[in-house]
Write a structure and sequence with these properties.
It is built from five helices and seven strands. It is α+β, with helices and mostly antiparallel strands.
Length: 202
C-alpha cells in the first residue's frame, strides 16, 4: 500500500451503522446510483459485510455479501480508488469463500468494473443498460473456464459412406485393370507362340 498506511479487513460480520453507511455511499457515489445503493443497503439485515479500515480509523473499503447454501452473492462493493484496496478486499472474499465451502460467487456491478472482476476469474453471464451480472465458479481451476481443449471432429455417416464407396470403386477399378493386363499378356503370348510355330513349319 502507498504512503505506508496499514489496513485491516474486518468481516464477514453483520454490524453496520449510519456512519458506516455514509462512508460507503461516498466510496461508490461516482459509480452507483443513489437509489440502488439505498435499496441494497436496506437489505443488509439479510446480509453480512466486510470493511477495510486504515490505521487512522477511516473506512476505505467495504462489501455487502449474502450467503445462501454453497452460493455467495456480492450485493455491493466499493473501495478508495488507486490504492489496491479493492484487490485486497476481493482476494479476502474469495479466500474466505473457499474456506467456507462456497462453490459459486455471483455479483452485479457497473460495466466499467468488468475488467477488474475478470482478473479474478469472474465470467459475464448477462447484462443490461446499467449493470453487468457475473459469476465465479470456485470448483474449477484457473483458466479452465476460458481454455477448453478442442473436441475431436467426428466424421458424419454420410462422409463415412462416401469414403467407403470411393474405396470400393477404387478396388473395382484396380481389379478391372489387373484383368485387362492379364488378358493383354495372354494375347501377346498367343501371338508369339503362333509366329514361332509358323517359322518352324517353314
Amino acid at each position: 500500500m502507498s504512503n505506508n498506511v496499514n489496513y485491516a479487513i474486518m468481516g464477514p460480520g453483520g454490524a453496520t451503522n449510519n456512519s458506516m453507511r455514509k462512508v460507503a455511499r461516498k466510496l461508490v457515489k461516482e459509480t452507483v446510483l443513489k437509489s440502488y445503493f439505498r435499496n441494497t443497503w436496506n437489505a443488509r439485515n439479510q446480509a453480512q459485510n466486510y470493511a477495510i479500515w486504515s490505521s487512522t480509523g477511516d473506512m476505505v473499503g467495504f462489501a455487502l455479501i449474502k450467503k445462501s447454501g454453497d452460493e455467495l452473492d456480492i450485493s455491493l462493493i466499493g473501495a478508495k480508488q488507486g490504492k489496491g484496496i479493492g484487490s485486497r478486499l476481493m482476494t479476502q472474499i474469495i479466500d474466505d469463500a473457499k474456506e467456507r465451502g462456497i462453490k459459486t460467487i455471483k455479483l452485479d456491478s457497473v460495466p466499467s468494473a468488468l475488467g477488474f472482476y475478470v482478473k479474478y476469474g469472474f465470467m459475464l453471464t448477462s447484462f443490461d443498460d446499467e449493470h453487468i451480472h457475473m459469476k465465479l465458479d470456485l470448483t474449477r481451476k484457473p483458466f479452465e473456464m476460458i481454455i477448453k481443449p478442442p473436441s475431436p471432429k467426428k466424421k458424419s455417416p454420410v462422409r463415412r459412406r462416401r469414403v467407403a464407396a470411393t474405396n470400393t470403386a477404387s478396388r473395382a477399378t484396380s481389379a478391372a485393370a489387373a484383368r485387362r493386363s492379364a488378358a493383354t499378356t495372354r494375347s501377346s503370348s498367343a501371338r508369339v507362340a503362333s509366329l514361332a510355330s509358323a517359322r518352324t513349319k517353314k
